[in-house]
Amino acid sequence: MLRLTFLGTGTSQGVPMIGCNCEVCRSHDSRDKRLRSSVMIERFDSAPGKRPADELPQQPAHAMYPRPVGADARIVIDAGPDFRYQMLREGVKTLDAILLTHEHKDHIAGIDDIRAFNYFEGRAVPIYATERVGRAVRKDFDYAFAENRYPGAPEIDLRTIRQNEPFDVAGFHVIPISGRHYLLPVTGYRIGALAYLTDFNGIDDRQLDKLWGVDVLVINALRYEKHISHFTVDEAVEISRRVHARRTYLTHMSHQIGLYADKKDTLPAGVEFAWDGLRIEIE
Ligand SMILES: [Zn+2]
Ligand SMILES: [Zn+2]
Ligand SMILES: [Zn+2]
User: Fold this and answer.
1) Which residues have beta carbons under 5 A from ligand 2 (an ion)?
2) Of 8, 58, 118, 216, which has the fewest CB atoms closer than 10 Å, so is most exposed?
3) Which residues contact 209 (CB under 8 A, 6 or more apart)?
4) What is the pLDDT of residue 48?
5) Number of separate domains in the chain
6) Gap between the Cα atoms of 67 and 21, Å rounded
7) Given this model, what pLDDT does residue 45 score?
8) What is the pLDDT of residues 63-120, one digit of tens each?
9) Is the peptide bond before 48 cis (omega within 30 degrees of 0)?
10) Which DSSP state fits 131?
């Protein structure tokens, strides 16, 4: 069984946005508070006690969760500026790897905070990225790669992935999905019946084929109006239809998406707005 946890579902600025006085940014609904986008994927080789969907935790985003028990493997996709708080909120104590989608700061700025995992697990954290994204990590965190590394600097085990070559991480079989983020190539990932695409605004048919029949599709939907580098809600829904995803969750949303409570019932069947802390179980 896989368990997907939404660590953050907000666009690069997060929601609320600094200085904004709109009704979404002023909302007290925890589902309108969106940290920078990231997901955690855990695998339970022997399924824990199955809970019906309505018993899934519905705590507000700022509550502390008990530690997820007994996961056999745990990875996250992206480590943005909210990574530290997201790890604390979810009570994460061990992390097998991080997969990166691209090098924008809202997806990599939190890498320095892997130091706790270095310390407690006594090893470098494997970080999987394409060659270009790896170069950006080396540049942005140059002190972690220095010849005489400062003691206490993060220990990063950078591993290069290639566009069309599936790879294995901590027992997960991972299929990279390539897309476009305006002019920047971006990588999504399919792991079993789950796929995670963020910061896409274009994908070609060969890559779409890799998503065919996915059970859970997570896909970025910034807002309703057309955008130069992100799918809109309608574009995300269209991709979901084309690949026949059974359940689709929208992420990387801006405050322009509107209040969760107002908008949650406006999507077609099988498509939902994700929110921070939402957990999905996938057989
Ligand atoms: Zn982003
Ligand atoms: Zn706002
Ligand atoms: Zn981006």
Assistant:
1) 20, 22, 25, 255
2) 58
3) none
4) 55
5) 1
6) 35
7) 84
8) 443 434 568 899 999 999 999 999 999 999 999 999 999 999 999 999 999 999 999 9
9) no
10) H
